[in-house]
């Protein structure tokens, strides 16, 4: 199998047509390897969420090809695509992907019913502990704060041991300590589970943990730096501070 968990080649996405046409993603190629964590930053509306949802097969591109774990998902029908998603992809999306009528622990149990290879119990308990949500397992999403929901969504994504982890602003409603914890978790999941990870963020607290930083501007992805956090150094931090604030998917 290829080293690249994700391969996107000449992918574009256009919404609407004529006067309402929006070219959300211009010709984009991106590869992410096992164990690699990349960050994508950029202003609101620049196409980050579009890229992430196409990378995970939640929506198809207008042009181009996407491979996840060696499967050409752009050539698959919806049923086979959802199989690939279930098997390989963990999403941490801004609109949290929690099921409103299931408790936290039932959200995880549901995954056990549809998929093998999830974390064993000890590891799951350790994950919940690290995220500080052990006491919340009997609660429903609506009884949780925004930050708690976000941490549960992170637990749910990591629980399934995905080979491709896609996180859209995963720390937006967390304080600094929690944000660091979460980023460490994502990094350690990438390294210990050999997962490829993409984190969309404008949060410069997080980029110390990533291998490459890309900036998205008007649907075009630019590589800003690579080679590990140390070597990215000052200039990257300066640049990240200009990343701007943004709201959502
Ligand atoms: N389903 C959609 N229909 C029409 N336009 C969309 C849709 N999704 C995104 N867009 C547009 O594509 C552009 C990029 O959006 P998005 O990927 O959400 O940006 P970001 O995540 O960087 O804020 C924006 O102009 C947005 O309005
Ligand atoms: Mg977005």
UniProtKB/TrEMBL annotation:
Q: Please report the record's description of how this protein sits within the membrane.
A: Peripheral membrane protein
Which residues lie in Basic and acidic residues bias regions? 228-249
Q: Which terms are listed as keywords in the entry?
A: ATP-binding, Cell membrane, Membrane, Nucleotide-binding, Transport
ABC transporter domain location = 6-243
The annotated region (Disordered) lies at: 226-249
Q: Where in the cell is it found?
A: Cell membrane
Q: Name one GO cellular component term.
A: plasma membrane
Kindly list the GO molecular function terms attached to this UniProt entry: ATP binding; ATP hydrolysis activity; transmembrane transporter activity
CDD domains, per the entry:
ABC_MJ0796_LolCDE_FtsE (cd03255)
The record's family statement is: Belongs to the ABC transporter superfamily. HrtA family.
Question: What PANTHER family does this protein's entry cite?
Answer: HEMIN IMPORT ATP-BINDING PROTEIN HRTA-RELATED, IMPORT ATP-BINDING PROTEIN
Subunit comment? The complex is composed of two ATP-binding proteins (HrtA), two transmembrane proteins (HrtB) and a solute-binding protein.
Function (record text): Part of the ABC transporter complex hrt involved in hemin import. Responsible for energy coupling to the transport system.
What name has this protein been given in UniProt? Putative hemin import ATP-binding protein HrtA
Record organism:
Bhargavaea cecembensis
């Amino acid at each position: 199998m290829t080293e690249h968990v994700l391969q996107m080649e000449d992918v574009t996405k256009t919404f609407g047509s004529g006067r309402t046409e929006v070219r959300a993603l211009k010709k984009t190629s991106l590869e992410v390897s096992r164990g690699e964590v990349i960050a994508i930053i950029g202003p609101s509306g620049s196409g980050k969420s579009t890229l992430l949802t196409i990378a995970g097969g939640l929506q198809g591109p207008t042009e181009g090809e996407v491979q996840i774990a060696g499967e050409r998902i752009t050539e698959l029908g919806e049923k086979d695509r959802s199989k690939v998603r279930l098997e390989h992809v963990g999403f941490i999306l801004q609109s949290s992907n929690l099921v409103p009528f299931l408790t936290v622990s039932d959200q995880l149990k549901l995954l056990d019913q549809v998929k093998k290879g999830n974390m064993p119990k000890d590891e799951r308990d350790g994950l919940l502990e690290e995220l500080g949500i052990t006491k919340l397992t009997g609660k429903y999403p609506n009884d949780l704060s925004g930050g708690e929901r976000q941490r549960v969504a992170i637990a749910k994504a990591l629980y399934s041991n995905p080979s491709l982890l896609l996180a859209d602003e995963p720390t937006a409603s967390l304080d600094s300590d929690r944000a660091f914890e979460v980023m460490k978790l994502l990094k350690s999941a990438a390294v210990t589970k050999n997962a490829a990870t993409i984190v969309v963020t404008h949060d410069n607290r997080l980029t110390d943990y990533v291998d490459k930083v890309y900036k998205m501007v008007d649907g075009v992805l630019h590589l800003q730096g690579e080679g590990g956090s140390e070597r990215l150094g000052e200039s990257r931090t300066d640049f990240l501070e200009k990343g701007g604030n943004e709201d959502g998917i």
